[in-house]
From TrEMBL:
Catalyzes the conversion of 2 pyruvate molecules into acetolactate in the first common step of the biosynthetic pathway of the branched-amino acids such as leucine, isoleucine, and valine. GO terms for cellular component: cytosol. Residues 25-103 form the ACT domain. It is an enzyme of class 2 (transferase). Dimer of large and small chains. This is Acetolactate synthase small subunit. The keyword Transferase applies. Gene3D superfamilies: 3.30.70.260, ACT-like. Chain A, domain 2. Belongs to the acetolactate synthase small subunit family. One of its GO terms (molecular function) is acetolactate synthase activity. CDD domains: ACT_AHAS (cd04878).
Amino acid sequence: MTQPVQPPASAYFITPEAEDTQTRTLSVIVDNEPGVLARVIGLFSGRGYNIESLTVSETEHERHVSRITIVTRGFPHVIEQLKSQLDRIVPVHRVIDLTRDGSVSEAGQPIQRELAIIKVAGKGDRRVEALRLADIFRARVVDSSIEHFVFEIVGRPSKIDRFVAIMEPLGLVEICRTGVAALSRGPAAD
């Protein structure tokens, strides 16, 4: 008699409702050099944590400094350990937890924006409805033909999620998302 196959122990199988898990947005300021991104990501994969969003770009060209923005979900004590370990990597200048306490209030959240490009195919009433809804969400048409639209939408990830969900029954074909860019609120630098 065969035993039922159990899924491997991984953060992929942690349900969003799992107790004590929090979504965190981390900003990691690093030297822009080969291998740094792999080392940063390796810390997360080594702990079995998924990175929900990852963006990287050079922010200070003269100093060769880049900002890595990571959105992850996990247990607070493990995320604190990850932050401490990130701080010890030599090319890391600093680690900023933009959601310091995992707060869900707007005041405690960083300013987050994401860009998505979304292709929707349809004719007739579906086409008209897609255009109407895109206008409500302030999505911009960047390409179109008689049979499709490509929309560009910028906003919080939750706004993009809602737009995608609404477009699904109208003929959603393809989605490309950039990942979250985030800064802390207020006048001070991170």
